[in-house]
Amino acid sequence: MASQITKTFDPEREIADRIIAALEAGTPPWRKPWTGQGGGAAFPLRATGERYRGINVLMLWLEAAEKGYASPFWMTYKQASELGGQVRKGERSTLVVKYGVVEKEGEAGEEVRRPYLRAYHVFNADQVDGLPESFTREVETPQDLGTRPDDALEAYFARLGATIETSADPRAYYHPAHDLIHMPPIATFHTTEGYYETLGHEAVHWTGGAARLDRLTRCKDRQAYAFEELVAEIGQCLLFATLGLIPSIDQSAAYVEGWLKALAEDKKAIFRAASEAQKAVDFIAERCGMAPEVERAVAA
Q: Is 256 in the same domain as 116?
């Protein structure tokens, strides 16, 4: 009988790969200062109403954004049944993990604490029929909040020379194959600053295109994608600083955890990311200069 090789299930690897796939697709859904269901889903909750923590927040945000789930509630098949619901036929579950510590007695009688990881699968309330009404939510639609552009910053980014496409699609991303930046309408953003921070983040990604600084051709594995996302985030902060503006360094703890897991084996990654970010900002500044009104404010 021919021997069979059994592939070991590695939940941490599966989660990391899922996160990188989202980074590949554009701005991660947990960073979305605009309205509309294309990202920024509600904070994921257990059936009990308790908040998920750590890496599970990313996983459930990603799945909700991809599938368009409006409900924040997630539950196991058994929990759904206990609540009077029935998971619809053909629905696929989402992987989450539980970290814990088990205490055992060692050989010398001492207490030994050993960490463990257990994977299990959950469904969103939108995948379940017959649940109480309290588990349902309406899908968020883009809202015109009346947010207006800043003339100086509009002129600044226009000098970049990038193709910036705007549509009702509630996603922000740089598309390498088409070499364009896509942005939701500025009116759907909560603040003007949030719009230009997002545009700055995508502009840094744009500098990595093959026709410019050629960083993105190196994005071939999960570490490389995490590194590029770190470059874009640092670059956006540096860009705002060069314009005399205050960047919002408000990434979720879960987002940072995703970077750290992917970059854990590379102690110098943060230094290289900062260096690449500076090159990107220098490239932008060479094309765009400084926004006139910001320049006057800084000079004052």
A: no
